[in-house]
Amino acid sequence: YLTVSIEPLPPVVVGDAVTLKCNFKTDGKMREIVWYRVTDGGTIKQKIFTFDAMFSTNFSQMENYRKREDLVYQSTVRLPEVRISDNGPYECHVGIYDRATREKVVLASGNVFLNVMAPPTSISVLAADTPAPFSRYQAQNFTLVCVVSGGKPAPLVYFKRDGEPIEATPLPEPPAGAGSWAPRNLLHRDLDDTKVPKSLAAEGEPGAGQTLGTAEPPRGLAAGRDSVTESIPETVVSREFPRWVPMAEPIYYLRHTQAPVSDGTVEARATLTWTLNPQIDNEALFSCEVKHPALSMPMQSEVTLVAPKGPKITMTPTRARVGDTVRILVQGFQNEVFPEPLFTWTRVGSRLLDGSAEHDGKELVLERVPAELNGSMYRCTAQNPLGSTDTHTRLIVFENPNIPRGPEDSNGSLTGHCGFRLVLALTLTVILELT
User: Fold this and answer.
1) Do the domain assignments include residue 420?
2) pLDDT, average across residues 400-425
């Protein structure tokens, strides 16, 4: 008789040592033990180890593995460092000689599944649809995306706000439209203090102004309501938020997606969406945490939502001359900004050098500046969904001694004199040819 059994294996982590143990009982004489790795749903069996009892030898067919397995004893194979590619079923085949004739071999087999887990290798949190503008006049949805890569099986992903778990409504399918499914717990548009004349709010006249004056100011506005006519610096964004922003707790929506990767791991994505409230969401700490059976403790990545403040602008060259190419660049801010800001350049009181009304990007390039731009003011607006801020810089253009100036040209550009010389030379050439 011949019976074969293989002890089941618990899930193992990449890099662990694994022992495949094949137990068998027989009263016959053993011929061989062969281990197979089964692939393609059982259609392909790759021989990985053989013990030949006739010659008392053993050898490996796993040349690509550089003989990673060692024969501990005749029915056991050890894999010192498993990989994700080792995941799958294995079979142990045992052969004995038939009692009646030594030319016949009786076979029996057993199988086991090796489940190889891999901990996630990376986790990151980013904002969807960035860069995006800031809106004072209507609510907008905001989405954080947590991307976890390298894990097997798929990890458990969840969000926290200021260290507290977020209770979110599961969202199995992507929203058809941002405005059709997201919560809109907004107050009436009449309560938008950006639409109420300051005279009505200050004098307390009946109507919308009186209602606005008696309403309790939302959090974040109380510090700046002493005077309606106060001067608000351009870099202060917390006082620009209108009163339609809801005071109720936000409603969060969470959606999970998974995508298999060619190396056998899974890329997991979790998206958290809610109606942004810049007053309470500014400087809020959001973290994405991951639990996985191959991790001894959760992985974490965190971001703090912050509106831009105090852009730092540099201009090169610092002493621009007529004909130079001037680059105006935003190098950074006084604070860490998230999500990525949207930069818009304009020229105060006029159009840009190329004739456009505005330019998007972190850098503004002025090709071959003329003398007319001397003293012109440029505004850079940096904004993200949490707020906006403006900063200005003035361009000073000096004369260029390398560029000749005509006597009739008062603005430093190349006109009249050069053109007059060219026309005069052409006229003299024509007269000489005629004579």
Assistant:
1) no
2) 49
Same domain, 389 and 254: no
- The answer on 276 and 160 residing in a single domain is yes
DSSP string, 100-131: S-TT-EEEEEEEEEE-EEB---EEEEEESS-S
User: Which amino acid is present at 342?
Assistant: L
pLDDT score for 101: 75
What value does the mean pLDDT of the chain take? 77
- Whether residue 262 is predicted with pLDDT greater than 60 in this model: the reply is yes
Domain range for 123 is 119-170+250-305
> Are residues 60 and 85 both part of a single domain?
yes
d(CA 260, CA 31): 43
Whether residue 362 is contained in a domain is answered as yes
Using DSSP's 3-state secondary structure scheme, residue 428 falls into: helix
Domain tally, the chain: 3
* Residue 99's pLDDT band (cuts 50, 70, 90): confident
- Report yes or no: 385 and 138 within 8 Å, Cβ to Cβ: no
Helix (H, G, I), strand (E, B) or coil at 249: coil
In percent, how much of the chain has pLDDT > 90?
52
The model's confidence at residue 43, banded by pLDDT at 50, 70 and 90, is confident
Do 147 and 126 meet the contact criterion of CB atoms below 8 Å apart? yes
Residue 87 lies in a domain: yes
Dihedral pair phi/psi, residue 246, rounded to 5° = -70, 145
Cβ-contact 43, 147 below 8 angstroms: no
**Strand-pair partners of 365:** 327
- If asked whether residues 293 and 160 sit together in one domain, one would say yes
Same domain, 20 and 154: no
Reply yes or no on whether the pLDDT at 140 is more than 70.
yes
Q: What's the rounded mean pLDDT across residues 378-400?
A: 93
DSSP per-residue codes, 293-348:
TT-SS-EEEEEE-B---S-EEEEESSSEETTPPEEEEEEE-SS--BS--EEEEEET
CATH number, domain containing residue 50:
2.60.40.10
Does 136 lie in the same domain as 45?
no
Q: Which residue has the higher pLDDT, 417 or 86?
A: 86
The phi, psi pair for 200, rounded to 5°, reads -70, -40
The one-letter amino acid code at 244 reads: W
Q: Amino acid identity, residue 239?
A: R
Residue 82 lies in a domain: yes
Q: At residue 294, what are phi and psi to the nearest 5 degrees?
A: -90, 0
Q: Which two tokens stand for residue 133?
A: 């503008």
